[in-house]
Design goal:
Rossmann fold, binds D-glutamic acid
């Protein structure tokens, strides 16, 4: 089994990509909806929540943990790696790997939650790898829009226009969608920025990194999927069907305190 956690339902975009490239691998998913959003919290709080989530996942003898949350990857990955003896993957490095393969003009945009952007995790990882220009923008209203199912139409377009206006002037050719919810808004984002900007989904990128690890460690399974949430399972189930369609098989409420 692989353990995957996110602050809520957004990480299901990562599960979807993992299942597409590794259908045989079992996944236990925890969405910490009781404490969502992580994107507005401090580093200390996000680390504390992440440790609790991992303690829950390790009850299932998972062989690998995927932090399917950009905010938790930005703030907590180094602390978590120190404490865990199993491989732990975050979304930042895989997203950057993919972006660097895509960019031709070395001008990369990054969008994410306030915390992800404030942490400068993407910017640091990109700049470590060479002489690139990075333009960052937090888009705090994107998460509630997706959670409300508003992923197209006038409201979604106006919000995208509002946040992406500045990036449009920066001549970027690649944009990292640095939040698990954003792949659901990718059509709106693409229409706002135009076809010259290539969008990188951190969900797709991390699934490829997981595939490499799984093959290296010969992790196998029966493709079992289990979903847990820390609050409002009905809402999670509604969103689960939106994100995963038929693959979604119900969710259980748990306490991770
Ligand atoms: N899952 C979070 C992320 O990818 C977004 C939602 C939140 O703020 O908790 O950054």
């Amino acid at each position: 089994m692989i353990g995957v956690f996110d602050s809520g339902v957004g990480g299901l975009t990562v599960v979807k990509e993992i299942k597409e490239c590794l259908p045989q691998v079992g996944v236990v998913y925890l969405g910490d909806t009781a404490r969502l959003p992580y994107g507005t919290k401090s580093r200390e709080t996000v680390i504390k929540y992440s440790l609790k989530n991992i303690a829950f996942l390790t009850r299932f003898q998972v062989q690998m943990v995927v932090i399917a949350c950009n905010t938790a990857s930005s703030y907590a990955l180094p602390a978590l790696k120190k404490q865990l003896s199993i491989p732990t993957l975050g979304v930042i490095k895989p997203g950057v790997d993919m972006a660097l393969k895509s960019t031709k003009n070395k001008r990369i945009g990054v969008i994410g939650t306030e915390a992800t952007i404030r942490s400068r995790s993407y910017e640091r990882e990109i700049k470590k790898r060479g002489d690139y220009e990075v333009f960052s923008q937090s888009c705090p209203l994107f998460v509630p829009l997706v959670e409300e199912g508003i992923i197209d139409g006038n409201i979604a377009h106006s919000v995208a226009q509002f946040y992406l206006e500045g990036l449009k002037k920066k001549n970027i050719d690649t944009l990292i969608l640095g939040c698990t919810h954003y792949p659901l808004l990718q059509d709106v984002i693409a229409e706002t920025l135009g076809e010259k900007v290539h969008l990188i989904s951190s969900a797709k990128a991390v699934a490829q990194a997981v595939k490499k690890e799984v093959e290296k460690r010969r992790i196998n399974g029966k493709g079992t999927l289990m979903f847990f949430t820390t609050d409002a399972p009905e809402r999670f189930a509604r969103m689960g069907r939106l994100f995963l369609g038929k693959t979604f098989n119900g969710v259980k409420l748990v306490e991770v305190e």
